[in-house]
Design a protein that fits this description.
Length: 363
């Protein structure tokens, strides 16, 4: 499509969960609800339109062994794009993916810099591995490198105890989060277990990834403080296999992981019912492939979250949380078209009819 061409989206345009329009227009790569005058080259697409989907926890430029080359990073991003996921929050990567910002055919990326972990307390080749006295300095460094986010590893297996344990003392993590906020960045943390959560909430954390360790005691704290969670249930599904692989060496850890997995749906539903903000993330790019947003939305529904709310967690609410527009007047035209209403059956997300990125039809 030429730069002067106009796209006409006709059918049902889901501006919001209950705000449904009959059509919109795309002119110069941007959305308008006003019919353009004098347009000669008009292409019409039909279907149910959603804003481009959001994966709020993925890792572009990363695989199970560490940073990958640009060709592999490109394939990861294209996989997301072709499944309708057009906004990615990269929740930690050692790779420099800034070159993607110059590619109009790739999804938009919001980066959290590189993971910050305790020494020998995370996956090899992923993180800056440091001690607590250096936490503030590294948080400041990654706040400047990222796009408004910093990623901590809040807990990991402690070899001395053979189980999950918190990585940071409260004083150091409080100072580090305050420094990130001073620099205009929000902070999120990888957390599987229960122990680290009270200190992180008290320290002012903005979000927790996975959050399988939420309990009756900590869920109200998250709700009161507005701390979001990104459950990554498609990743939590791997816990039994991980437990089996590590059981001989770390039996306490293996049993803990099984317990967290067994109550995963109850945990997410209890958090949602309490008013904790829940968003869609897949943890793609480590050991999982990209393009799993539809599967994660289906997992949220399986956990008991209403379909419309699970859809919003990857569409309207997710974009608002990340400070990116949806289908609004003048916004960049990033949208996905489906055959049927995704509010009625979220499984339709797995089969986009058309994908429009920056006003160009890419699928």
């Amino acid at each position: 499509m030429s730069d002067s061409a106009v796209l006409h989206i006709r059918g049902r345009v889901l501006v919001g969960p209950e705000d449904v329009r009959d059509e919109l227009w795309i002119v110069g790569g941007r959305i308008t609800f006003q019919r353009p005058t004098g347009a000669r080259d008009v292409r019409t697409l039909t279907g149910w339109a959603l804003p481009g989907l959001v994966d709020a926890h993925c890792h572009v430029g990363l695989d199970a062994h560490g940073a990958v080359d640009e060709s592999t990073s490109e394939k990861q991003a294209l996989t997301d794009r072709d499944t309708g996921t057009l906004l990615l929050r990269d929740a930690g990567s050692p790779a420099d993916t800034r070159w993607m910002d110059d590619r109009a055919d790739l999804p938009r990326v919001i980066r959290a810099g590189r993971h910050i972990a305790r020494t020998r307390r995370y996956i090899r080749n992923y993180a800056h591995e440091i001690e607590p006295e250096d936490l503030v300095a590294y948080v400041a460094q990654e706040a400047r490198r990222g796009d408004g986010w910093v990623k901590l590893v809040g807990d990991w297996i402690d070899r001395s105890t053979g189980d999950l344990a918190a990585c940071w003392p409260r004083g150091e993590v409080t100072a580090a989060i305050a420094e990130a906020h001073r620099l205009g960045a929000r902070v999120t943390a990888h957390c599987f277990a229960e122990e680290s959560l009270p200190d992180l909430v008290a320290a002012g954390i903005d979000c927790v990834e996975h959050a399988t360790g939420l309990t009756e005691e900590t869920i109200p704290l998250f709700a009161e403080r507005g701390v979001a969670i990104v459950p990554t249930l498609v990743n939590i599904a791997t816990f039994p296999k991980l437990a089996e692989g590590g059981e001989r060496k770390y039996p306490r850890w293996a049993e803990h992981m099984r317990r967290l997995h067994a109550r995963r749906y109850d945990t997410v539903r209890a958090a949602y019912d309490a008013g904790v903000p829940v968003y869609v993330g897949t943890d793609a790019g480590g050991s999982l492939p990209h393009g799993l947003v539809a599967a994660e939305v289906a997992e949220l529904v399986a956990a008991g979250i209403p379909p419309a709310a699970a859809l919003s967690a990857t569409a309207w609410a997710a974009r608002e949380w990340l400070g990116r527009p949806g289908l609004t007047e003048g916004a960049p035209a990033d949208l996905v078209l489906y055959e049927t209403d995704p509010r009625e059956d979220v499984r339709v997300l797995a089969a986009p009819r058309r994908v429009v990125l920056r006003g160009q039809v890419v699928l």
